[in-house]
Amino acid sequence: DNLPHAEHKGLELRVVPTSYVTRSDAGLLVRIVENLVGNAIRYTETGRILVGCRRGDDQIRIEVWDSGIGMAPEALDSIFDEYVQLDNPARDRTKGLGLGLSIVQRLAVLLDHRITVRSTLGKGTVFSVAVPFAGRVEKRPVEQAATETPRAKGKMTVLFVDDDPAILSAMDLLMSTYGFDVITGATGQEAMDGLKGTMPNVIVSDFRLPGGETGVDVVQRIRARLSTDLPAIILTGDTSTQSIESTDLVACHVLRKPVDSDKLITLIESVAGQPAFN
């Protein structure tokens, strides 16, 4: 039901498939997730909403990520109250969260599922629902499997660089779901420190990074450190890619934002299995 609303706002709504099985009331759990997704769409003007699962020892966390307005730390304690108002004049928001999150909280208490939230003002929010882990389905329906992006052959490592913590976590979740090992960093230095002797198959970096650093700088530094022209993908929201293309980087691809996740995964699989070239 939320898909038409996302499409109307020009948002990407991505649901990552999973084989995990939980013990819960299906109808009530669906209502919780639908309310969280609806809330994410309501407070997101550009970008994407990502829904996926993370596995713990005895639990699964169903997570809903958005690139919306976010919330200040002091607002997090009251967001599940009825009729709470969000004060965000920068986005000219005058409407509150209404009853949506209040209903989510009540249903979660009823089902004994824990709800958590993390948010960065102006960057986005992630809601998590912790539910019991009850195993996994080894074979999924043919109809579903046919719509999924083929997985890469063999284990691959992706080095992902972006200064937005929400994007880092969302991409970590997305790529891990597709079977990639992921190393992340908010800066080029963090990315290099995270390698710890690992040779990644591909570098994926946002173009604009803190301190005037660019994704091109990151690719050049990592290639110099590892003494190889690793395949690279630069993500950019710039209207022109001239500043990237003018560097004449070999084995480097440019994707414009908002990035289609299927296209990104397919490109990673395409370039990561190829040897770097001069």
Describe the 3D structure.
This protein is α/β, with parallel strands linked by helices and 278 residues long. It is 32% helix and 25% strand. The protein has helices at residues 3-8, 26-42, 100-111, 142-146, 165-177, 188-195, 215-226, 242-245, 261-272; strands at 12-15, 20-22, 48-55, 59-66, 114-120, 124-136, 156-161, 180-185, 202-206, 232-236, 252-256. The strands form two sheets. Strands 1, 2, 3, 4, 5 and 6 form a six-stranded mixed beta sheet that branches. Strands 8-7-9-10-11 form a five-stranded parallel beta sheet, with helices on both faces. β3 and β4 form a beta hairpin. The longest helix has 17 residues, at 26-42. The protein starts with a helix and ends in a 6-residue tail after the last helix.
